[in-house]
Design a protein that fits this description.
Number of strands: 12
Shape: elongated
Low-confidence stretches: none
Distance between the termini: 81 Å
Oligomer: single chain
Helix content: 25-40%
Number of domains: 3
Largest sheet: 10 strands, mixed
Mean pLDDT: 91
Length: about 350
């Protein structure tokens, strides 16, 4: 049998066809110049690919200078999948983007399923998680904040998985997370500039064991670069319960307390704020606080909360796109990130003397 090699225009037409059928664009196609910037392909190849799609009837020209109209069949649908959502916290305690993800998957024709137990309820135990996965009828999994061990197991299975946050770097799985490394570095440098030397990060165990994740490591690196010795004080280990968190804070503030705390999630930030208030410690006069995620409640806070801000919408759209790709039989293992920035609020001040 003779081999048939696709031309560049045919390859591009196949890619554009897939994107159109996954509803990346609606109504009309972007112009050639915009596609050229987005795809990094020369305009002659793009024009030839669009003409091929016109011949198929998927696009319809509307005259010189006008964008081509997308023409989908009336019965065009993306195959539906059952998508299991396994996050660190239960749905009712999760951020707003979790419910948005649920609704967008439903609107795309899929069936999202919240697992019977979350990662924290399963104590991040791989054996327990494996049992639950095997009891959950699902075609694809979205796992949020998974540990290295959890994601290693998922990566070894045939079922498609998308890692939201989590320690996915070493595994060939689709993933997305905000790139907080520059923001962590900026926050640490700002605290150092304000005279802070005793800075502690309180984060969940998968982010510090078996070795610090890249966000936590960049903080340690910044401290070392400033001549500040680092040890377990900067990245302490604590039992992942409310009692364990309070016990850790009690131990830290008993002798040589930190002058700045970086809290990994809004619920840890609120718990630390309550702890400090109960003991008459003022923010930021006695202790500076930074949260590594945004939260809607911060809008009402006075002083304003120093935090790392990122937009959840590109993340949600990427997950829906991935599910659509899987439904169409595409082996989508692309990793991507969204920008994050440090927002200095009123909870950061000079280190107390």
């Amino acid at each position: 049998m003779a081999l048939h090699f696709l031309s560049h225009a045919q390859q591009l037409a196949r890619h554009l066809r897939s994107e159109i059928l996954q509803d990346k664009w609606s109504g009309t196609m972007p112009g050639i110049l915009l596609l050229e910037r987005e795809l990094g392909v020369n305009r002659n190849t793009i024009d030839a690919a669009l003409k091929l799609l016109e011949k198929e009837g998927l696009l319809k020209g509307q005259g010189p200078g006008c964008k081509r109209r997308i023409v989908l069949q009336a019965n065009h649908t993306t195959p539906a999948l059952r998508v299991a959502i396994l996050f660190h916290d239960p749905p009712e305690e999760s951020e707003g983007y979790v419910s948005e993800l649920y609704h967008l998957l439903s609107e795309a024709g899929h069936t999202p399923i919240f697992t019977s137990k979350c990662l924290s309820a399963l104590r991040m135990d791989v054996k327990r998680i494996v049992r639950m996965v095997k009891q959950t009828p699902a075609d694809a999994w979205v796992v949020g904040a998974g540990s290295r061990e959890i994601l290693a197991w998922f990566a070894g299975q045939e079922i498609p998985i998308f890692s939201l946050f989590g320690r996915h770097a070493d595994f060939p799985i689709a993933a997305m997370a905000p790139d907080k490394v520059p923001a962590y570095a900026a926050a640490t440098r700002r605290l150092i500039a304000l005279g802070h030397r005793r800075i502690s990060v309180l984060c969940h165990r998968p982010l510090r064991l078996p070795r610090p994740a890249k966000n936590q490591q960049v903080l340690l690196d910044e401290l070392k670069a400033a001549g500040i010795k680092t040890n377990k004080f900067n990245l302490p280990d604590w039992k992942p319960t409310s009692e364990g968190f309070t016990a850790q804070l009690n131990a830290m503030f008993h002798h040589t307390p930190p002058t700045a705390l970086i809290l990994d999630e809004p619920h840890l930030y609120n718990a630390a704020l309550h702890f400090l208030a109960e003991r008459g410690l003022r923010v930021p006069h006695d202790v500076s606080l930074i949260c590594t995620d945004p939260d809607r409640s911060f809008i009402w806070s006075d002083p304003s909360v120093a935090h790392i801000h990122w937009n959840h919408r590109p993340v949600v759209r990427r997950i829906v796109q991935w599910v659509n790709n899987v439904a169409l039989g595409k082996n989508d293992r692309r990793k991507s990130s969204t920008k994050a920035k440090f927002v200095e609020g009123g909870t950061v001040g000079r280190a107390p003397k």
